[in-house]
Amino acid sequence: MTETTSKYADFEGLRTQAVALRREGLSRRQIRDRLHVDNNDLLNRLLQGEPAPEWTKRPNAKDDVREKARELRLQGMTYDQIQVELGCSKGSISLWVRDLPKPERSRSAIEQARLAGRMRWDHELAVRDAERQRTKADARDETVTMSDQELFYTGVALYWAEGGKDKVYDRRENVTFINSDPGVIAVYLAWLDLLEVGRDRLSYRVMIHETADVPAAERYWAGLVGIDVSALQKTTLKKHNPKTVRKNVGEAYRGCLVIRVAKGATLYRRIEGWWSGIAEGATSRLKEGDRPGRVEP
Predict the structure, then answer these.
(1) Checking DSSP bridges between strand 175-179 and strand 256-261, what pairing results, if any?
(2) Stated pTM of the model
(3) Crossing angle, helix 63-74 and helix 79-86, to 10 degrees?
(4) pLDDT digits over 13-32, tens only?
(5) CB contact at 8 A, 188 and 258
(6) Cβ atoms within 10 Å of 152's Cβ, excluding its own
(7) What is the DSSP letter of 201?
(8) CA pair distance 288, 297, nearest whole angstrom
(9) Backbone phi, then psi, for 177, in 5-degree steps?
């Protein structure tokens, strides 16, 4: 101990030499060997305040890793992905990249595939719907202009499908028609006009579920046939059955309109006769195989 103390007794002289050597560009190891200083604490004191020469400075071992982490973060990687890529802790990654904007959360491969499939299917549905609408529009153009004869036959068939009929067990020779389709109602009224049935012979009544918007339905049907709401007969309300799950609900549901022709017994008999003739003619065509002018489906 006495030997070591005496060896470094001239501290200031030793420091002067150490500083001079440092300024000449020597490293700590070189200074230590030159001055025979074996104590690191003493060497630190001798060189205190003296910067190391540039050639002895080495980059921080993690500088490259830090830059790579920032690069990966800017590419959109998460902390977990960067950790797997570089093998460093999340704590270090957080310190290195927390000043960078957070990347948008990327979808998994499954989510991306599902989204792509959905987009393809949406496109396919749009194409199909466009084709569907074109077909309907073309068909409409073929029939929008109707002759009196075509309207006559259409009206007879329409009434026989949707109108009231006389039964052997229930004699009802009256003309009563009910439907919920405004287009069907329009065709029926045009047919009655063709038959010269005066509008003053017609009475109108709404039939609708009691849970629906009754006033709105009455206004709608009155407007469709061109009369005042007050001219409608008393609305028939259908009782609500909680056990029944109805699908005809919402704002679009307006019930049905019943149209009755006053003093319609004779007209009913003619309708039944007309329909009988149409059915007989169609039956004959089927038996004879007579199919001229066939309309292509």
Answers:
(1) antiparallel
(2) 0.57
(3) 140
(4) 888 998 898 888 888 888 88
(5) no
(6) 15
(7) G
(8) 21
(9) -130, 135
